[in-house]
Amino acid sequence: MKLSEKFMWGGATADFQYEGGFQEGNRGLSTHDFETAGAYQSPRYITYRMPDGSVKKARSSFSDPEDIPVEGKPCICEDAYYPSHKAVDFYHRYKEDIALMAEMGFNTYRFSLCWSRIYPTGDELEPNEEGLRFYEAVLDELEKYQIEPMITLHHDEIPAYLSEKYDGWSSRHVIDCYLRYCRTVFERFGKRCRYWLTFNEINQARGYASTGTHRADNQTHYQAVHHMFLASAKAVKLGHQMMPGSKFGAMYAASAIYAASCRPEDVFYQLQCRRDVYFCMDVMVRGYYPSYTEAVFLRKQVTLKKEPGDAEILKNGTLDFISFSYYRSTITNQSREYNFIGGDPNPYLETTPWGWPIDPLGLRYVLNELYDRYQVPLFIVENGMGAVDEPDASGYVEDDYRIAYLEAHFRAMMDAILMDGVDCFGYTMWAPIDLVSLSTGEMKKRYGFVYVDMDDQGKGSLERRKKKSFSWMRRVIETNGECL
Ligand code: BGP
């Protein structure tokens, strides 16, 4: 059993977890530059300078309205460690890293552009040439090895200035800023990149880092998401006009969602939770708000501010394919509010050291469910196992647990494609080279085929070393999944 020759195999990364160089090449500050720990850790603090020059430190959830910055450039607190600042230094090591990807046989690589590297504040009219040149150099390197790029335009972050000045995506103005940035990169990279993702895990985008808004209420959240929908649809339309043949997706956090029991109430509750998770794709793939939204908004006391023409924009910018991340399945429980990352333990499944249930069949379930629901091509853009890797005396990591995880997920993916008839045209593993974890901000949660010598405080040589899974993956790709 093997996949077609055209199947796309590769890896995926995000700039703030991988790139570093946060003050190089005229890059502007991005929301993640203010996270001293992972995005889901609390308390998180950001520090910024007030208009009178004083420095304030506040929880990034901004529970106290007094803490909301009014004006002024955000500043970094000197006594804290910020994982995004150095990350694992792809900025200086991209040649070495891409050579490793080529050695594994990747024919695609998904990476995100840092918006504030290209438009440092996000609000200026002219792009930063140095930022564009960096990504051009990355694309040159990929071309050298015939690795097809897939670019994420927005991976859970926005220029910090747009957050401070406009409260991020809660402002409609940010759509214009995003479109200007898209136009620039389409113009510059359009001939070299066919696959584009407008947003990463848009159904999970909530809070300061990913939406840039300082307010956590439902009204602000859904208004911000509405603006992201419009921005995505406009980018898709523009991209299709500027780059004939280009394909657009948006990335969505998927999970097989199981009911707590066969009690009809539990099953019905699970259906409601699934709608919460599918909501974004329903709008972006079908091009309109689904009928159930009305009841949801009523329950959540949300009244969206829409402008005439919004419905038309959504209709004219639907996605060509769906890309998604799959790490785990989840169990819903009516007595607790549904939380995609949490959920009750599943007695039938083992978990990773971070408690994420390992459920390969859940991947086959998700592939089938998505394809049944939308009938558009699918791409698994993130999947992998976060584990604690212990190098032996020579520095070698025998990551058999990772091989077992991937092998089981590849079998499930191949069953969905070859036996169930699902149209899934690619897989990029998260993350081929160790990088900083999004949820915890740690280095010890590692995903890669390549070990990076760096610890949770950013100390280490940054040397890259192949793990056991490296040659295993090369063989899988070489044989298109025949040898697992
Ligand atoms: C996804 C994000 C990635 C990545 C991954 C793994 O939600 O798109 O950026 O980090 O999850 O999560 P973590 O790093 O928290 O283990």
TrEMBL record:
Family, as annotated: Belongs to the glycosyl hydrolase 1 family.
Record carries keyword Cytoplasm: no
UniProt entry keywords in alphabetical sequence: Glycosidase, Hydrolase
Location of the active site: 382 (nucleophile)
PANTHER family xrefs: 6-PHOSPHO-BETA-GLUCOSIDASE (PTHR10353:SF296), GLYCOSYL HYDROLASE (PTHR10353)
Name the record gives this protein: Family 1 glycosylhydrolase
UniProt cross-references to Pfam families, sorted A to Z: Glyco_hydro_1
